[in-house]
Structures are given as C-alpha cells and as structure tokens.
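Regression test case RT-17, inverse folding.

Input:
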C-alpha cells in the first residue's frame, strides 16, 4: 500500500471550521481589548448620561458598551435607581484606569523587550543577561513575553469581573439573573488595590 493512500487528508469541512474557530478567538480577543480601552470614556459617559437623561440613560450607555464587548446583557433602562448607576460609573472609571495602566505596562515592556538595544544604551554590566548586549537583549525579550502573558490574563479577568459587576449592580432582581455574592467585594478589593497602586506609583516618582 502506498504512503499516499494511508496519509489522512483533512476534510473539506474541517479546514473552514478550524479557520472559523481561529477567527472567532481573534474577534473575542479584539473585543476584550476594545472593551478595556473603551471602559474609561464609556463609564464617564454613563455618569454624564445619568446627569442628563436620568438612570435610564446611564443604564442604556452601560448596555451599549457591554454589547460592543460582545457580552450578552439583560439590563433594562427603567429598573435601577440613579445612585446605583452613578456608583457603577465611578467604579467603571477606576477599572478603566487600570486597563490603561496595563496598556502602559505592555507598551513599556515592549520598548524594553524587543527594542531593548535601541532604547537602552550600554554598557550592560548591571543589566539582566549582561554584560554583553546579546545576553541583555535575550533576557529582556523573555521578560517581555512574561509581562504580556500576565497583562493578558489580568486584562481578561478584569473584563469578566466588570461584566459581572454590571449585572450585579444594574440588573433588576426580577429578571432572573443569578447574582454572585463575591462580585461586589472583589470589585472593592480591585478598587482598593488600584488606589494603593497609584499612591505607591506617585511615591516612587
């Protein structure tokens, strides 16, 4: 029996399905990225909408941002008090600042990773992987990969937590959405950590 006869050939249906799965993952990653980067202005827009149009406008603004991120939502514009919508917008601003801080960390790691030799002049005696440029470049390149992995995981987790927070704060209990008790405390911990991070960062500067 010939080798050609025994080699499995991908079916015509399997390849389009695999390509569709890859495209779906890319679209999901792009939506998570856009969701995080757009959360700061969207949350500010939620608070502004409450001031202009009342709670219904704020909830509608939050619902549209969820839809842009690809998250299904059961939010209703006429079921939530204005104070809860304002608190949600304020927490969203803090979350949004964290997303922009993560973006800055990723950009800084990129500048000091694959572009290390261009942005950091020698000598490299005290640098990671030194004392020569090749070793320092390789060490910072691996550190860059690690930073991007951590940033991506934290980004994904923060986006998921904010979606759960939105459901917990802005969804009426009569809509049948199951609320998780730990969402609001976990969001409080994130906000407290963000404040401590900013304070520590300012002291370093």
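Golden output:
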């Amino acid at each position: 029996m010939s080798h050609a006869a025994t080699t499995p050939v991908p079916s015509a249906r399997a390849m389009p399905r695999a390509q569709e799965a890859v495209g779906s993952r890319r679209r999901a990653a792009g939506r998570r990225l856009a969701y995080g980067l757009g959360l700061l202005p969207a949350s500010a827009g939620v608070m502004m909408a409450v001031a202009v149009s009342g709670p219904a406008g704020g909830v509608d603004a939050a619902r549209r941002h969820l839809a842009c991120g690809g998250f299904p939502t059961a939010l209703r514009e006429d079921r939530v008090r204005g104070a809860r919508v304002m608190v949600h917008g304020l927490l969203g601003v803090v979350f949004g600042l964290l997303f922009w801080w993560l973006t800055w960390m990723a950009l800084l790691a990129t500048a000091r990773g694959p572009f290390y030799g261009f942005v950091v002049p020698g000598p490299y005696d005290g640098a990671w992987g030194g004392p020569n440029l090749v070793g320092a470049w390789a060490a910072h390149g691996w550190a860059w990969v690690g930073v991007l992995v951590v940033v991506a995981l934290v980004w994904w987790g923060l986006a998921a937590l904010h979606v759960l927070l939105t459901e917990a704060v802005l969804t009426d209990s009569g809509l049948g959405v199951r609320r998780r008790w730990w969402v609001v405390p976990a969001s409080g911990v994130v906000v407290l950590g963000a404040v401590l991070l900013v304070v520590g960062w300012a002291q370093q500067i």
